[in-house]
Amino acid sequence: MITVLLTGAGVALADRKRGSWGILGALSVSQLALHFFLELTAVSAHGSGHLHGPPPIPLSPALMTLGHVIVTMLTALVMAHAERVLFVVTRLLQAIFPRKTTPLPVVTPPPAVCVPAPVPRTLAQLIYQRIHARRGPPKSPFESNDPMYIGI
């Protein structure tokens, strides 16, 4: 459970540069949360009688608080320096390996040609076409382009 909470907090804080004060604040909150959760597990272990190993050494609350403060400040100092180094290395790598800005090719399917399907004629349409046929005199054979009538 503690690992899941710490992982979630680490992922939430890992998106940008925090600086010394941000790191110190995050570590202080995590120290308090871990101390609280470990106290809860120690109380439940003492209450149930399932404590394994030697009994805990009693420490004064002031000495424990001082230890937490010193360790938190030292850890924050180390992490702030590590963060600065990490961002310097990142900038150097970005200068050496610049991002490619060529866009990716657009992949689209070829356009489909829509050919209308032949519509079957109904009986009413056929009758209408027959009744309203083209009117006029029939073509004469001399007006035709048919080679059979040429030369008559």
Strand residues, percent: under 5%
Average pLDDT score: 76
Give the number of helices.
4
Label the structural class: mainly alpha
Which descriptor suits the 3D outline? elongated
Describe the main β-sheet briefly. Answer: none
- What is the subunit arrangement here? single chain
Order of SSEs, N→C? HHHH
Would you count the extended β strands for me?
0
How helical, in percent, are the residues?
55-70%
Question: Distance N terminus to C terminus?
Answer: 109 Å
Uncertain stretches of 5 or more adjacent residues: none
Radius of gyration of CA atoms, rounded to a whole number: 44 Å
Provide an overview of this structure:
Helix 2 (19-48) packs across helix 3 (61-96). The protein has helices at 2-13, 19-48, 61-96, 123-131. By secondary structure, the protein is mostly helical. The chain is 57% helix and 0% strand.
Short recap of the structure:
The protein has helices at about 1-15, 20-50, 60-95, 125-130. The chain is an all-alpha fold.
Jot down its keywords:
single chain, 57% helix, 4 helices, elongated, 0% strand, mainly alpha, 152 residues
Ordered list of secondary-structure elements with their pairings:
Layout lengths: L1 H12 L5 H30 L12 H36 L26 H9 L21
